[in-house]
Design a protein that fits this description.
heterodimer, A: 538 residues, alpha+beta, Dipeptide-binding Protein, domain 1, Dipeptide-binding Protein, domain 3, nine-stranded mixed sheet, four-stranded antiparallel sheet, 16 helices, 30% helix, globular, B: 299 residues, mainly alpha, MetI-like fold, 12 helices, elongated
């Protein structure tokens, strides 16, 4: 056979191209494996210490290595704190004023790798540590309400609080940082070592922390877990920061689950490529809020603020970032206690999308032709996508917002130095009704140019009366219903003053291979849920 | 036969510099037997027209978003499809060409102006002036253009004039270096000596005798760096410190497109293709211009 060089090259090329095409559509999810691989959007693992964690995705490893005293029902925020699930605590009671909480601990729980039984001493040690700024480097505000932790025998712990808190279990103990640590392990290994070699009581034990940060951490099943051993033998928590690379990793079947991208069209484009993928979304997730500086011209005029509230089409924004994005009507999202819904929001503070009304309000305020202002935003996809849409909405009513898109860290640093006009926050706050008001609206949390102020970017309550007195009244109210009524009153006043525009909540989204079953439905709750019942079919 | 043998006084031909070739002659030399240059000139001319008449040519407003039309594939309504905000990609590319070409022309021109002034001053006067200017130029040359541009852009922030300033500062040292070297060579020419001898004042000497004779390499450099400036602007916009959204530039179209590669690959393909095409064209024109103006270096 006479094979010329050209024909040989041509035939080989065609064969390679054919093989390549043939291998494209079939995604190889059904690899038999005993290791579940999950990839998160970060450069690498920072720490596995629950009290020092500064990177949300690291908490996924933490909740599998450690147990909490109580946990969310799988997987949603409970409508009532009494729906919380007992974990290391089996039973609890509080005094009628909700200021003293007593917990009975589960007996016979052992720490990993021979570190002995879990007792009330460990719980006291844990919650003393979390309030020790020297050891954990900065105390989270939510733990400040704990005044004292006492033990009463090896299986009873008593928490004393500085003010009544009917939400104590949910607001303080149910997240990843309520993890119970081993006193003996920390004293043996030291503060440094425990962050890479943690000892918990959880369903998984640390096997390897990889030197390559992208490889993350491998955990292996704890056969002696009090709740029975988990289904999967191993889980590897990996890190792939680049969105395109992470998308390819789930499409190719290299990993079983990745976190999604909160940008317009992303979910649809992935679904069109691979319709069988599952999307788990926790709502509410992060609350996206737009904080108007009420002391800066022209936003010191409430008509201008109301005009912008009417100009911004929040339904369009949530529609664009479907399925993760949901509308909010007040600072408290609809699914949280005290939150207004589309049905319950009073008409005069609903601010329905109405460009004509916006133009009319602007004309009344002396801006018939609109105006132009500068504003900063972050390059992170959820911030920049929402602000680019808002920029377009404002353009339609003649308001020019010149966006300066900054690096995410630089954006927050600048905003904390009081340099932004319409500040933006995207925070996952717990279902505690008074929390957003305490954080964003009291006068002593006003933002300061030396960055030592708080997050009252609106300067609300500084020159005009704010909600300071109402908030104190609400926080002192032990009765839940009465407290919620006070919170709604604050909510309406803040909306009427058009101080903070509640835009949307952007749920945390995980994309999951069709072969991976979680064992429960994800509805709401914290952004890290247990994979202990996860099963890879096939 | 050689000039050294001659004992006569310099002839007029020696002391009067050769007249620079006219623009028409240069153009003729550039395109003669070089179809690639003709194509390159046509491409640039086309993009200049696109840039100038962008609002008339673009089928849609490049900024108008449409949530219902995100990530559409090319169709009759949107010839290149839409991006993740439902904006018409073709219109954004056309308006983006305006931004890119403005940077491509304005920055090298300003850099040439400033750089030549510095270079000629240093070369002509020498001594202390030369040492000060040259060391500053050396300092700037020590940084790669992109790094220098990122440093300045990070300090100044984005925005049109900031990017122009960044690119101008990044390219000035190159022009200054070339202008200085050429001036040093020209300074030794007999016609300069003659001008000194007959007492021509120095500013006049620089304008009448030096600048016209060092113009060729500077012009060639301008043409070559127009492409480079477009590429640098695209890099800065890609990094988020160049043209700021929602204004389109080829660089930020690629940046947005890369994050949305699975939604629609067309922004990356379209803008990438245009950058390649225009930068290549400028380089071809620069090469041809060099060959026409400076036949000695023809390769």
């Amino acid at each position: 056979m006479n094979l010329s060089r050209r024909r040989f090259v041509g035939a080989t090329g065609a064969a390679i191209a054919g093989a390549g095409l043939a291998s494209l559509p079939g995604t190889a999810w059904a690899q038999p494996t005993d290791t579940l691989k999950v990839a998160y959007s970060a450069r690498g693992l920072r720490t596995i210490d629950p009290h020092k964690s500064i990177q949300g995705v690291d908490n996924n490893a933490i909740i599998h290595i450690y147990d909490k005293l109580v946990d969310l029902p799988r997987w949603r925020f409970p409508a009532d704190p009494s729906d919380l699930v007992p974990r290391l605590a089996t039973d609890w009671t509080s005094t009628p004023d909700s200021k003293t909480w007593t917990f009975q601990l589960r007996q016979g729980v052992e720490f990993h790798k021979g570190y002995g039984p879990m007792t009330s001493e460990d719980v006291k040690f844990t919650f003393d540590r979390v309030r020790d700024a020297e050891r954990v480097g900065g105390i989270k505000p939510k733990f400040l309400s704990i005044v004292n932790v006492r033990t009463d025998g090896p299986h009873t712990v008593i928490f004393e609080l500085d003010k009544p808190d009917p939400f104590f279990l949910l607001a303080v103990l149910s997240d990843y940082d309520g993890a119970v640590m081993s006193r003996k392990a920390i004293e043996d290994k030291g503060e440094e070592q425990i962050s890479k070699d943690p000892i918990g009581t959880g369903p998984y034990m640390v096997e390897t922390v990889f030197a390559d940060p992208g490889q993350g951490v491998l955990v292996t099943a704890n056969p002696d877990h009090w709740d029975g051993p988990p289904t999967m033998k191993n889980i590897q928590f990996m890190y792939i920061a680049d969105t395109t690379a992470r998308t390819l990793a789930i499409l190719s079947g290299e990993v079983h689950m990745v976190d999604g991208v909160r940008a317009p069209g992303w979910a649809d484009s992935i679904r069109s490529r691979s319709p069988e993928l599952h999307f788990d979304v926790v709502s509410p997730g992060s609350f996206f809020t737009l904080h108007f500086n009420v002391t800066a011209k022209p936003f010191d005029d409430v008509r201008v603020r109301r005009a912008l509230f009417h100009a911004i089409d929040r339904d369009e924004i949530t529609q664009a970032i479907a399925p993760v994005s949901k509308r909010t009507y007040g600072l408290i999202p609809p699914s949280f206690p005290g939150g207004f819904t589309a049905e319950t929001i009073p008409d005069d503070v609903a601010y329905r999308h109405d460009p004509d009304k916006a133009r009319q309000l602007l004309a009344e305020a002396g801006f018939p032709d609109g105006f132009t202002f500068n504003n900063d935003t972050s390059q992170r996809e959820d911030y920049s996508a929402i602000m680019l849409m808002i920029q377009d909405h404002l353009r339609r009513v003649g308001v020019g917002m010149q966006l300066n898109i900054k690096d995410h860290t630089a954006f927050h640093a600048g905003q904390n130095e009081a340099t932004n006009t319409l500040s933006q926050m995207s925070s996952a706050l717990p279902p505690v009704p008074t929390r957003p008001f305490r954080q964003y609206l009291v006068s002593d949390a006003v933002v300061k140019s030396d960055s030592k102020g708080g997050q009252n970017f609106s300067r609300y309550g500084v020159e005009t009366p704010g909600i300071d007195d109402m908030l104190v009244e609400a926080e002192q109210e032990p009765n839940l219903e009465k407290r919620l009524a006070l919170v709604r009153k604050m909510e309406i006043q803040v909306l009427r003053d058009a101080v903070i525009l509640p835009v949307s909540t952007n749920g945390w989204m995980m994309v999951r291979s069709p072969d991976l079953e979680l064992g429960f439905e994800v509805e709401s709750g914290y952004v890290n849920w247990p994979l202990t019942e996860a099963r890879i079919a096939g | 036969m050689s000039a050294a043998d001659s004992t006569t006084a310099p002839t007029k031909a020696d002391i009067v510099p050769p007249p620079p070739p006219s623009a028409l002659t240069t153009l003729h030399l550039m395109v003669e037997g070089r179809p690639a240059t003709v194509a390159a000139l046509a491409v640039i001319a086309l993009f200049v027209l696109l840039g100038v008449f962008a609002p008339l040519i673009a089928p849609h407003d490049p900024l108008t978003q449409s949530v219902l039309n995100v990530n559409q594939a090319p169709s009759a309504e949107h010839l290149l499809g839409t991006d993740q905000f439902g904006r018409d990609l073709l219109s954004r590319l056309i308006h983006g060409s305006r931004n890119s070409l403005i940077f491509g022309f304005v920055s090298p021109f300003l850099a040439a102006l400033i750089g030549t002034t510095l270079g000629v001053t240093a070369g002509f006067f020498g001594g202390f002036v030369d040492r000060v200017i040259s060391r500053i130029i050396d300092l700037l040359l020590a940084f790669p253009e992109l790094l220098l541009a990122i440093l300045i852009a990070a300090a100044l922030g984005g925005g049109f004039w900031n990017v122009v300033a960044v690119l101008t500062i990044a390219y000035t040292p190159g022009f200054a270096r070339v202008a200085r070297a050429s001036t040093l060579a020209v300074k030794e020419e007999p016609y300069i000596e003659a001008a000194i001898a007959i007492g021509v004042r120095r500013p006049l000497m620089i304008i009448r005798h030096v600048i016209p004779n060092i113009a060729a390499p500077v012009v060639v450099l301008m043409a070559l760096w127009a492409g480079s400036a477009i590429r640098l602007e695209a890099s800065l916009s890609f990094l988020g410190i160049g043209t700021q959204p929602p204004n389109p530039s080829w660089g930020n179209i690629i940046r947005d497109g890369l994050n949305n590669l699975f939604g629609s690959p067309w922004p990356v393909i379209g803008a990438g293709f245009l950058i390649t095409l225009v930068v290549l064209s400028f380089n071809l024109i620069g090469d041809a211009l060099r060959d026409a103006l400076d036949p000695d270096t023809k390769t």
